[in-house]
Amino acid sequence: MSSLIERDRASLWHPYAPASGTLPLWEVEAADGVALRLRDEDGRTHEVLDAMSSWWSVIHGYRHPVLDAAVQRQLGSFSHVMFGGLTHQPAVDLAETLLSLAPQEQGRQLERVFLADSGSVSVEVALKLAVQFQTASGRPQRQRFLTVRGGYHGDTFAAMGVCDPVDGMHSAFPGLLAGNVFAPRPPAAATATPAAIGEWRTSVETLAREHSNELAAIIVEPVLQGAGGMFIYPPECVRILREVADAHGLLLILDEIATGFGRTGELFAANHAGVVPDILCVGKALTGGYMTLAATLCTGEVARVVSSGDAGALLHGPTFMGNPLACAVANASLGLLRDGDWRADVDRVGAGLAEGLTTALELDGVRDVRIIGAVGVIELADAVDVAAVTRAAIERGVWIRPFRNLVYTMPPYISSTSQIRTITAGMVAAVSAAADRLEARV
User: Does the keyword section mention S-adenosyl-L-methionine (predicted)?
Assistant: First the structure.
C-alpha cells in the first residue's frame, strides 16, 4: 500500500512548489504544545520543535485546552451561518474586542470591523475600501496605491499588485497587476542614520506629491516586512508615512497580518511608532492558528464616507464571513493574550533568539542576524538550499521553512528558554552544515 506521502505526491499541489512534487515532504502524525511528530519518506519518525508557528499563527501552541474548548462549545450550538442579514455573539464579541485592542488616538479611532477569510482577502477588502472612499469623496480618479519596495501583502491579484514589483510575482502576470507607485525600501533599523531617514522621506514625499491625484492610499507592513525579506525598519518611517498620507488626502493602510498580536514586542507593530491607521488588516495569529480568519478594521470616517457613496455598501461578501467557529476560537485566543503575560513571553523568546542566533555571524556566508520581538532571522549572502537546510534542522530536532536567502524563526510564545536554545542551535547548525556540504561539492 502506498504511503501517505506517495499518495500526496500523486494528487496534491503544495504552496510555492511544482506539481511534480520533487521537494521533500514530511507527514505530521501529531502536534502538541510546541512539538510536532513527523514521519519522513523512509518511514522514520522525528520529534521536532515547530520554530515557524505554522506560518506565524500558532502563538499559543498546539492543542491548547482553552482553544480546544472554545471550538467544542461552539460546535454544540452551530458551526456556520451566513452573515448576510444574520449575526451571532462570537462575531459581535470579536469585533468589540478587536476595536478595544487596536491602536487608537484622539481624533482617529478604528470603529468598524469587516471579517474576512484570509489575510490576502483582508488586504483586498482594504484596497477596495480605499478606492470606494476616494470615489465617494468625489475623487474617482484615485485608484492607485503608494507602497515601498520589499513588501508582501498576499497572493490574490490586488494584493500582489502592492507586493515588491521585482522580488514579488509581477513578472509572472504581466498586464494583469495594477501599476502602483513604489517608494524605496526604508533604511534598515540597525544602521539607519537621521540623514538616511531624511533622504528616504524626501523620496516618499516627492512620489506622493507627483502622484497625489491618482493615489487612493499608502499601504505598508509597519516596522517589519515579512515574506518580502524579514526586514526591520525604523518606526519613524511609519510616522513619516502617516504624515505624508494626511498631507495629500490619502488613507494609510497598515498590514499587520504577520506583525499583529504581539509578534514584534508590541501588541501591534503600529504601536512602536505611535501611529493609528485609517485601515488595519489582521490575520494569522488571530485564531491562534486554529482556523482561517482575518479582519479589516477601519475608522468611523472611512465607514461613513463609503456607506454614503453611490454604491451604498462595501462591495465584498465572503461566503464564510464571520464563521462562528473561527470567531469563537479567535475570541479565546485574544482572551489568552489579554489575560496572560504575552509581553513577558515575547521578551523571553526574543532574548533567547538574540543569545542563540548571534553566533551565526561567525559562519562563512552569513550576512546578517536580526531580532525583533519573537522573530529571529539569519540572512545569508546567497540563496538557501531549502531542502538541505530543512533536513539538517530536522536532524537537530527543529522544524523551519527557509526561503530565498533567509533562515528564520517565529516560534510560539509559549516556547520555553530551553526550547528556544534548541531552536537557535538547530538553525545555526543547519546553516553551518548546509555551507559545509556546498563547500565540499565545490
Answer: yes
